[in-house]
Write a structure and sequence with these properties.
Elements lengths: L1 H5 L1 H23 L7 H28 L1 H4 L5 H12 L7 H19 L10 H5 L13
């Protein structure tokens, strides 16, 4: 509901601002404050930008595919995590990781194969007035 009112970009922005505030408070309470290293700063920036892009793509996918089919795309998150960690040099690209990517890709493809039953939405007042002459249905008075 919030996404429909604010839009995908606004929801992503507010989620990031909230996460930044809460994360900052927790970081100060749990670990003494320190300036991030250059590598950590780049990683934080990359993750922030990719997360905003992912939020926007998610809301577009839900709008186009429907929530049931877009939910299958959650499987892409571990693949994105692998890409970022390999790009940042935090993890090596191994055969096991590539096999995991293949399994995730196959799972997403299988999950998206079934057509989604989309039915038009009608409000309750329209259904109760079906077939009645104008002005005699529910809500007229």
């Amino acid at each position: 509901m919030a996404a429909a009112v604010l839009g995908g970009l606004s929801v992503a922005l507010w989620a990031h601002l909230l996460a930044t505030g809460v994360g900052s408070v927790l970081a100060v309470l749990v670990d003494p404050w320190r300036i991030p290293t250059k590598r950590e700063s780049v990683a934080l920036l990359v993750v922030a930008v990719l997360t905003v892009v992912a939020f926007v793509i998610w809301y577009l996918a839900v709008n186009v595919l429907g929530a049931d089919r877009a939910g299958v795309l959650i499987g892409v998150m571990p693949v994105a995590g692998l890409v970022v960690s390999v790009a940042m040099g935090a993890q090596e690209l191994t055969v096991v990781a590539l096999a995991g990517v293949a399994v995730v890709g196959i799972g997403c493809a299988v999950g998206l194969l079934r057509p989604s039953p989309r039915t038009p939405r009608t409000s309750p007042s329209h259904r109760s007035c079906a077939g009645s002459p104008a002005g005699t249905g529910a809500g007229s008075g």
